[in-house]
Amino acid sequence: MQQPYDIVSSYSVYRNMRDSKFLKRYYRSKAVELIKGNELYGSSPPDIFVGRYGYPNVYIGPLVPPRIGDTSFMGMPEKWVGKTIPEIVEMRSMLIRGMHLTRINNVDNGRIEEMVKEIALAEKFTEVDVRLSKKPESRVSFDEHSQPFGPSAKLTSMNLGNVRADRDIESAYLDTDLGASNAIIELYEKGLVVSKIQKALAAGLLGKGGRRKFVPTRWSITATDDTLSKHKLESIKSYPEVDAIRVFENLALDNRWLIIMVPGSWEYESIEAWYPNTTWNLDSTTIDMGASYEPYTGRKTYAEIGGCYYAARLAVGELLEKLKRQAKVLILREVHSGYIMPVGVWNVREHVRQALKREPMVMESLQGVLNYVSKKMDIPVNAWIKNSTLLKHLIYQKSLANR
């Protein structure tokens, strides 16, 4: 990542390092204290996790809290907007991960494999009884792509209560002629939340018969966002342009977003600026900036900034499809020191969605946009321009028009 300028705040860095370490230590010990020995009985939201290390041999298993009742909120990030990082970590750290080693294409073989699929099929929270090889390790897992979860241990046995399957997911599962991408799109259009579809893909429930496999959770999240946003773009690119420059904004979890839509054929760029002591910039005293861009024809390589790029593109695509318009879209994101630990790319998808539900500022000119960026963001506008392909295109086109 490029580093446009230095910014050091020893007090804020120290304060947030202290907060981050305290939260991790507090919640991991709290979760372990609730587990008696190596047996766990609780209501999965429902939720599962498929690891990626060792691929194609991976660990799969349920996420189960040591509590009975309606835990569905714990597995649905679409409902977490407005929650603080401590609230999210406290909730998710209660989910204990059972780990069973299997091969990705072993979706139709093995008792635990079948039960993991049943959990992902479930319409609502379901009771799970697991026996672990030992008391779970005292740690909480954090990843910028997937939601955090609590301590983990290897599974030795597992049993489920009565599971009522979600009819839409079950229909896709039983259709062995339906490709995974088409299944993702159909489930979304039937109204299933994105996180539910991601779990179905991870559990090997989607795709043509004989080609199904377990998909690491991290990959299933991005694959779902990518598939759905590409599908929307097929229609969006045929729509007329937006009629004015629109700027949307949001502030959440000490992340600042500006989403800028400019009249013109589809182009898209997302730029992230990570302050010191944030997830991807822990050991630096400078702000790290990274950008990913796609022209009208799309990208052929994975986005440099990772899954957040696709999560935000889906949110943008949803609004443009609703408006029946296309635009050049630029997303600016500042990640400040209060973002002391990662909580998953849902943070981007849901908070960009939230921003796009609000009334935008309507700008008369590109210069007005740049002035607004200078007002709303801490990083100088020249640093954004330096790191942006799309802004350079817009400024260059404006210069040619004025000749």
Radius of gyration: 22 Å
Distance between the termini: 35 Å
The domain count comes to 2
Mean pLDDT figure: 89
Secondary-structure content class: alpha+beta
Can you summarize the main beta sheet? 6 strands, mixed
Count of DSSP H/I helices: 12
Strand order of the largest sheet: 1-5-6-4-3-2
Low-confidence parts? 1-18
Question: How many beta-strand runs?
Answer: 12
Report strand %: 15-25%
The topology string of helices and strands comes to: HEEEHEHEEHHHHEEEEHEHEHHH
Structural shape: globular
Helix content, binned percent: 25-40%
Question: Could you give the topology of this structure?
Answer:
Layout: H1 10-33, E1 39-44, E2 48-50, E3 57-64, H2 85-92, E4 96-103, H3 111-121, E5 126-132, E6 152-160, H4 167-174, H5 180-189, H6 194-202, H7 217-236, E7 245-252, E8 255-262, E9 267-274, E10 288-294, H8 307-323, E11 328-335, H9 346-356, E12 361-363, H10 366-376, H11 381-387, H12 389-401
Parallel strand pairs: 4-6, 9-11
Antiparallel strand pairs: 1-5, 2-3, 3-4, 5-6, 7-8, 7-12, 8-11, 9-10
Identify the notable features of this structure and list them briefly.
403 residues, alpha+beta, 2 domains, six-stranded mixed sheet, 37% helix, globular, disordered N terminus
